[in-house]
C-alpha cells in the first residue's frame, strides 16, 4: 500500500494566486481529513469527509478556503486568493472505520 | 471542550535510557487515544492506538498505557536509540466524531 499521497510536496506562490493541494487517500478508507500545521497553532483540523461527503468544515478559516472530494480516491483543498498567513504545512489523512488516522507527507505552502 | 496537554515539551536523554512521555486530556469520555511520531519536515506516523476499553498497547520497544478516569496516557520507550529522536504527539477524538484534538507534542532527542 502506497499510503496517503499528497501533491505537490512544496508550493511557493505569490499573494493573491490560487493554490490547489491534492490528496489520494488509502484505498478502502472511508474518511478523509485536511489539517494545517503551523508553529504558532500546531495541528488544526480544517475539514473532514465521510464517504465523500463533507461532514464538518468548521475548521476552515474563511471563505477563501474550499475543499472537494469528487470520489473516494481524490480530494482537493483550494485557497483563492492566497495570503502570506496561509503559509503552513497542509496534511491530508485518511481513516478506516476504527478511527486510526494515517497521514500523508504534507504539502509545505509558502505564500510570498 | 476537550484539551490535550503533553509534558515535557522537550526531552534530551542519552542513548539506552528508558523514558516516559506524558499526555493528559480534560474530558475522560474518549473513544480512543492515538500516539504519533513526526520527524522534522515530515508527516505524522501512527505508532499506537488504544481503544477506550484497553489499558495498554505494545509495539516493539513502545508501550502506551491509558487511564481514562485520570485523563492520562503515557508512552514508554525502552532502550532509546538516536533514531527515536522526533516529536511525539498524542491525540484523542472529540465526542463521537472522527475529529482529533492534538497535544502540542514532546520533542525528543536521544544523544549517541
The number of distinct β-strands of chain B equals 11
Q: Which two protein chains have the largest interface (Cβ within 8 Å of the partner's Cβ), and how many residues from each?
A: A-B, 23 and 20 residues
Look at the structure and give the mean pLDDT of chain A: 93
Give me the Rg of chain A, rounded: 13 Å
**Count of DSSP H/I helices of chain A:** 0
Helix content of chain B: under 10%
Separate helix tally of chain B: 0
Rg calculated over all Cα atoms of chain B: 13 Å
The portion of residues forming beta strands of chain B comes to over 45%
Describe this structure in words.
With 112 residues, chain A is mainly β. Chain A has strands at 5-7, 10-13, 19-24, 31-38, 42-50, 53-56, 65-71, 74-79, 88-95, 102-103, 107-111. The relative contact order of chain A is 0.34. The mean pLDDT of chain A is 93. Chain A has no helices and eleven strands. In chain A, a hairpin with a 2-residue loop joins strand 7 (65-71) and strand 8 (74-79). In chain A, 0% of the residues lie in helices and 55% in strands. Chain B has strands at 4-7, 10-14, 19-25, 32-38, 44-51, 56-59, 62-67, 72-77, 86-93, 100-102, 106-111. The mean pLDDT of chain B is 92. Chains A and B meet through strand 5, strand 9 and strand 10 of A and strand 4 and strand 5 of B.
Briefly, what is this?
The complex is a heterodimer of chains A (112) and B (112). With 112 residues, chain A is mostly beta strands. Chain A has no helices and eleven strands.
Question: Which short descriptors sum up this protein?
Answer:
heterodimer; A: mainly beta; four-stranded antiparallel beta sheet; 0% helix; B: 112 residues; mainly beta; six-stranded mixed beta sheet; 57% strand
Amino acid at each position: 500500500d502506497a499510503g496517503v499521497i499528497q501533491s505537490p510536496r512544496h508550493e511557493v506562490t505569490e499573494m493573491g494566486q490560487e493554490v490547489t493541494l491534492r490528496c489520494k487517500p488509502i484505498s478502502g478508507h472511508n474518511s478523509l481529513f485536511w489539517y494545517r500545521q503551523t508553529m504558532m497553532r500546531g495541528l488544526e483540523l480544517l475539514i473532514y469527509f465521510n464517504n465523500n461527503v463533507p461532514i464538518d468544515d468548521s475548521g476552515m478559516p474563511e471563505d477563501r478556503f474550499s475543499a472537494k472530494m469528487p470520489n473516494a480516491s481524490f480530494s482537493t483543498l483550494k485557497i483563492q486568493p492566497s495570503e502570506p498567513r496561509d503559509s503552513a504545512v497542509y496534511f491530508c489523512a485518511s481513516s478506516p472505520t476504527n478511527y486510526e488516522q494515517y497521514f500523508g507527507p504534507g504539502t509545505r505552502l509558502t505564500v510570498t | 471542550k476537550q484539551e490535550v496537554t503533553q509534558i515535557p515539551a522537550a526531552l534530551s536523554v542519552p542513548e539506552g535510557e528508558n523514558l516516559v512521555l506524558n499526555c493528559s486530556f480534560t474530558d475522560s469520555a474518549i473513544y480512543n487515544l492515538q500516539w504519533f511520531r513526526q520527524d522534522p519536515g515530515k508527516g505524522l506516523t501512527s505508532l499506537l492506538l488504544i481503544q477506550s476499553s484497553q489499558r495498554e498497547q505494545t509495539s516493539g520497544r513502545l508501550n502506551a498505557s491509558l487511564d481514562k478516569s485520570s485523563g492520562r496516557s503515557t508512552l514508554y520507550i525502552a532502550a532509546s536509540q538516536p533514531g527515536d529522536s522526533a516529536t511525539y504527539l498524542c491525540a484523542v477524538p472529540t465526542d463521537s466524531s472522527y475529529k482529533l484534538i492534538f497535544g502540542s507534542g514532546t520533542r525528543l532527542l536521544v544523544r549517541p
